[in-house]
Each structure stands twice: as C-alpha cells, then as structure tokens.
Specification:
With about 210 residues, this protein is mostly beta strands. It contains one helix and 14 strands, in the order H-E-E-E-E-E-E-E-E-E-E-E-E-E-E. The strands form four sheets. Strands 1, 2, 3, 4 and 5 form a five-stranded antiparallel beta sheet that branches.
Length: about 210
C-alpha cells in the first residue's frame, strides 16, 4: 500500500507540474491572428504549411489549397514584414487566386520543411501518389526538393526520394555554427521510424 501511495503521489505531482508548465506557456504566448480562411483570404484556405525566414521577412508556404468556387489548387506563398501584427501578404492573381510557388497538383503535395542557405530558399515537398487504405497504412508518397527566391516560383532540384525512402516528410534545421543542415524525416509516408541525417549546407542539393 505504501508503494501504491508513493506512486500515486508521484503521478499527482507529475500531473500538477505538467498543468503548471502548460499554463506558463499559455501565459507567455501571444496569439496574433489567423492568416488564411474565411474573411482573411479571398475564398481559399490551405492544409499543411511551413514558415521560414528569407531576408528580413518571414515567409509561409501553404499546400493543398481549397478554393470555395474553384476546388483544389496547388499551393500558396505569402509573407509579412510587420512582425507585431503580421498581416500576411499572399501572392495572388486573377482576382484572389493564390499564385503557386511550385506547380504540381497531385493527390496531396505539401511542403514539409523549408530553410534559407546563402540567399537561396529550399523546401522539401511531400507528394502522395496513392492514398491506398489511408495513413499510415499503404500510402504511397515520395518527396523532392525545390529552390527559389520567394515569392517568385521555385524550381525543382535534383533531390528526390522514392516511395520506400527513409525520408518522405523532411524538415531541415541549420546548426548554430552553420556547419551542417540537419534533416528530420519520417519514412514511407508515416509507416517507418523517424530518421535523422545531416549534410553540409553547400551540399543541400546533392543529398
């Protein structure tokens, strides 16, 4: 019984500590605004996206765009310069259609991560070929790299990983000393373990 009481006390203290920790995060976080959706963008919304710094702006790459009148569209790119309020300026054409940063309309093609290296923006795209019986299941998906100078369209790099690759959803992060770019990714869509790799920044297109 003493052991049970001790375990119960530890669990209780852990729960209390967790609640207090989460409360402190909420107290420190300042919600700014929605950046897509009704009343924000011109009749369209997005699914998955990633933020990254390019120059003195924070950019947003948004995938799987759904327009209320025109159905699915490839993707969108936007940025803001006023970090206090962050009114995102989306690259739009034709009366509010989001202008894609890379044109590919697959079953689902979304950016999984992005990074800026020596003035060039790089992004890794996850591309579903066949949803199969749903995630994680037997979904077939591959990934590929693109690069460019936002908000103008990106071009495809030589980076490409097939359906059974250990890297399908790739998120890059630069080391503080810029010695390596670390790549964090899930394999075979989501059916394989998370993997970690690294590459020299000047080799980001040769992985």
């Amino acid at each position: 019984r003493a052991n049970k009481k001790m375990i119960g006390s530890k669990v209780f203290l852990f729960v209390v500590a967790t609640v207090l920790f989460l409360a402190s995060i909420n107290a420190q976080m300042h919600y700014i605004r929605p950046i897509t959706g009704p009343g924000v963008t011109n009749g369209w919304d997005g699914d998955l996206g990633v933020p990254f710094w390019y120059g003195n702006r924070i950019y947003f790459l948004e995938g799987d765009i759904l327009h209320q009148n025109h159905g699915r569209l490839p993707n969108a790119v936007g940025y803001c310069t006023d970090m206090a309020n962050c009114h995102v300026i989306w690259n739009e054409i034709n009366g509010g259609w989001p202008y894609p940063f890379y044109y590919l309309l697959g079953q689902s093609t979304v950016p999984a991560g992005a990074i800026t290296i020596n003035g060039m923006a790089y992004s890794f795209m996850m591309n579903v070929v066949n949803w199969g019986n749903g995630a994680p299941g037997n979904v077939l998906a591959n990934s590929f790299g693109i690069k460019g100078h936002p908000p103008t369209p990106f071009a495809k790099t030589t980076v490409a990983y097939g359906d059974n690759s250990p890297f399908v959803n790739i998120a890059p992060a630069m080391a503080p000393d810029h010695s390596y770019v670390y790549l964090y990714g899930a394999g075979r869509y989501r059916a394989a373990p998370i993997s970690l790799a690294r590459v020299h920044p000047n080799q980001i297109e040769n992985i």
